[in-house]
Design a protein that fits this description.
Structural class: alpha/beta
Oligomer: single chain
CATH superfamily: P-loop containing nucleotide triphosphate hydrolases
Shape: globular
Low-confidence stretches: 1-6, 91-95
Largest sheet: 6 strands, mixed
């Protein structure tokens, strides 16, 4: 349960219902990211389930879409939550989610600005910043206990601990390829976290991933992003699963064929 001003929000996720492109807000159609094939004038993305998973090849625009949505939610497009800006910003980052969000419109019921945008690239900067703040609070005698100390753990362990601490409240949570920091065993733990988030009915999750294990999460809306646009898909229809199945059926033969195909 959360508060929006003085009003308690009792509605279940999803809170963000739809995002769409407003062509009149695009200053330069040739500029990135509007030059990507996905961003046609009728681009639209609807959210009907608490968990939405977007899959697609590199360069199709998955991360850019997530950055744009994160900015619409009031998050920093480099990662973090509302009011957090712990990461150095490059021009490249500013031209992605920040620029896209200026041309996007969104439908919320209601608008939620609690939550977090998780990016592997910025995790250590965010974690280092939070550890520093917690340590300063402890030295000043402020409540909250010992510092989180996320960085004392292994990469995957620190990620999961960070997720556990941030994903217990009502909000919208955006994950950009979380498997980049998770071993297969850690991915199973992440699936369990997703189940708890879905079960709470107060968390909306939007995730981009290349990991078939995460794509297989039940009850999620799975969308495949291609140059032709976004379309619903099953796990078995994704290129990621097809490649992984071929490898598992014959690892040696798969690798040998791949190495010969140059």
């Amino acid at each position: 349960m959360s508060r929006r001003g003085n009003r308690t929000i009792n509605l279940p996720a999803p809170y963000l219902k739809r995002v769409w492109l407003e062509p009149s807000r695009i200053a330069d159609r040739e500029a990135y990211p509007f030059c990507l094939p996905i961003f046609t004038d009728d681009f639209e993305l609807c959210f009907e389930a608490p968990i939405t998973i977007i899959v697609g090849e590199n360069g199709t625009g998955k991360s850019t879409i997530l950055e744009g949505i994160a900015t619409l939610a009031g998050f920093d497009d480099a990662g973090g939550g509302k009011g957090y800006r712990p990461v150095d910003h490059s021009d490249a980052l500013e031209k992605m989610g920040g620029q896209l969000s200026k041309a996007l419109r969104a439908s919320w019921l209601p608008k939620i600005t609690n939550g977090w945008f998780f990016r592997v690239e910025s995790f250590f900067s965010v974690a280092r910043w939070l550890d520093k703040l917690a340590l300063e609070d402890m030295r000043m005698g402020l409540p909250g206990g010992p510092p989180p100390d996320f960085l004392s753990h292994s990469h995957g362990e620190g990620f999961l601990r960070f997720f556990e601490e941030r994903c217990q409240r009502q909000g919208i949570f955006i994950f950009d390829e979380p498997e980049s920091a998770l071993s297969p065993a850690r991915q199973i733990e992440f699936l369990k976290l997703l189940r708890r988030m879905e079960g709470s009915r107060i968390c909306q999750v939007i995730m981009a991933t290349h990991a078939p294990m995460l794509m297989a999460y039940p009850n999620a809306t799975l969308l495949r992003l291609t140059k032709a646009g976004l379309e619903p898909a099953t796990l078995w229809e994704t290129d990621h699963f097809k490649v992984m199945r071929e490898f598992c059926d014959d690892p040696a033969g798969f690798v040998d064929a791949a190495l010969q195909d140059e």
